[in-house]
Amino acid sequence: MAQSDQDIELGLRGRVALVTGSGAGIGRGIAGWLARAGCLIAVNDIDGAKAEETAALLRASGHEAKAFVANVRDEQAVAELVAHIRRELGGLDVAVNNVGMNAGMPATPFTEWRGDDFRAVVEQNLIATALCCVAEARAMVEQGRGGVILNVTSGETTRPAIRLAPYGAAKAAINHLTQTMAVELGPHGIRVNSIAPGTTLTEQVQKTFPESHVAAILESIPLRRMTGPDELGRLALYLASDLARCVTGQFMLADAGAFLSRSRPAMPAVPRVPDR
Question: What is the number of domains present in the chain?
Answer without folding.
Answer: 1
